[in-house]
DNA sequence: TCATTGATTTCA
DNA sequence: GAAATCAATGAT
C-alpha cells in the first residue's frame, strides 16, 4: 500500500518541503482508471511576500489567494498563455509559500510535465491529502540533491535571483 | 534569438 | 474598458 505524506509534512517551511519532495512519487490517476507514477526530480521554492519572484509578492489577489492557505493545496497557473505550472502550497495559513514542480523523471520541464499528466486549471485548489486523481506517495528512501539558483525570474532583483532555492535530484 | 499565447493585473 | 506582463517551449 502506498503511503502519502501527511498534512504535517506540507505545513513545514517551503525550504524543507521543496527538497523533501525530491525522489517522492507523483501519482496521477486518469478518469478511466489508469494510474501512472513519476519520480519528482526537480523543484523550486517560492517563499512569502518578501520574495519578489513569488506571485504573492504583490499581495493577496484572486490568483494568489490559494498560496495563503495552509499547506497541501495544489496551485495551478497559466504562463505565457500556453503552459500550466504545477505547484504545491506549503507552510501555515496566511504565509504564502509554494513549491514549483519543475521536472519529473522522463519529462524535463514544467510545461512538459503538465502536458504529459493532462493537468489543467481544474486541478487548482485540490488537496493532495484527499485528491483521488493527483497525489504523492513515498518514493526513494535515500536521496541526494544539489541546489542552484532559480529559473526565469530575472525581474526579481539580484538578492532573490541568487537564492539557491532550486533543488535537483542527483 | 524569436514567435507563440491567454489569464491576470494595472492603469485609466 | 484597454494595455502590459509573464516561474516556457519549440522552431529558426
Number of helices: 4
Structural class: alpha+beta
Q: What is the CATH class name?
A: Alpha Beta
Give the total of beta strands. 9
Number of discrete domains: 1
Oligomer: single chain
Q: What can be said about the biggest beta sheet?
A: 9 strands, antiparallel
Looking at the overall shape, the CATH architecture is Roll
CATH topology, anyone? 3-methyladenine DNA Glycosylase, Chain A
Shape designation: globular
Gyration radius (Cα, Å) is: 15 Å
Instruction: Assess the beta-strand content as a share of residues.
Output: 25-35%
Descriptive notes:
There is one protein chain. The protein has 170 residues and is of the alpha+beta class. The protein has a single domain (7-169), classed as 3-methyladenine DNA Glycosylase, Chain A, CATH 3.10.300.10. It has 4 helices and 9 strands; from the N terminus they run ααββββββαββαβ. Strands 1, 2, 3, 4, 5, 6, 7, 8 and 9 form a 9-stranded antiparallel β-sheet that branches. A hairpin with a 3-residue loop joins strand 3 (74-79) and strand 4 (83-89). The radius of gyration is 15 Å and the shape is globular. The protein starts with 6 loop residues before the first helix and ends with a strand. The mean pLDDT is 94.
Keywords:
nine-stranded antiparallel sheet, alpha+beta, 31% strand, DNA-binding, 3-methyladenine DNA Glycosylase, Chain A, 170 residues
Brief overview:
The chain has 170 residues and is α+β, with helices and mostly antiparallel strands. 13% of the residues lie in helices and 31% in strands. The protein has a single domain (7-169), classed as Methylpurine-DNA glycosylase (MPG) (3-methyladenine DNA Glycosylase, Chain A, Roll), CATH 3.10.300.
Amino acid at each position: 500500500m502506498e503511503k502519502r505524506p501527511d498534512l504535517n509534512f506540507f505545513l513545514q517551511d517551503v525550504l524543507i518541503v521543496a527538497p523533501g519532495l525530491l525522489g517522492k512519487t507523483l501519482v496521477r490517476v486518469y478518469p478511466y482508471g489508469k494510474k501512472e507514477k513519476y519520480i519528482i526530480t526537480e523543484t523550486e521554492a517560492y517563499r512569502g511576500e518578501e520574495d519578489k519572484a513569488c506571485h504573492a509578492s504583490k499581495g493577496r489577489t484572486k490568483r494568489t489567494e490559494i498560496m495563503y492557505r495552509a499547506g497541501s493545496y495544489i496551485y495551478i497557473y497559466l504562463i505565457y498563455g500556453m503552459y500550466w505550472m504545477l505547484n504545491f502550497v506549503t507552510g501555515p495559513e496566511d504565509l504564502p509559500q509554494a513549491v514549483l514542480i519543475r521536472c519529473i523523471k522522463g519529462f524535463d520541464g514544467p510545461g512538459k510535465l503538465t502536458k504529459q499528466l493532462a493537468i489543467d486549471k481544474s486541478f487548482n485548489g485540490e488537496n493532495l491529502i484527499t485528491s483521488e486523481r493527483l497525489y504523492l506517495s513515498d518514493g526513494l528512501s535515500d536521496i541526494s540533491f544539489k541546489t542552484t539558483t532559480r529559473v526565469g525570474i530575472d525581474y526579481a532583483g539580484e538578492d532573490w535571483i541568487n537564492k539557491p532555492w532550486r533543488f535537483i535530484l542527483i
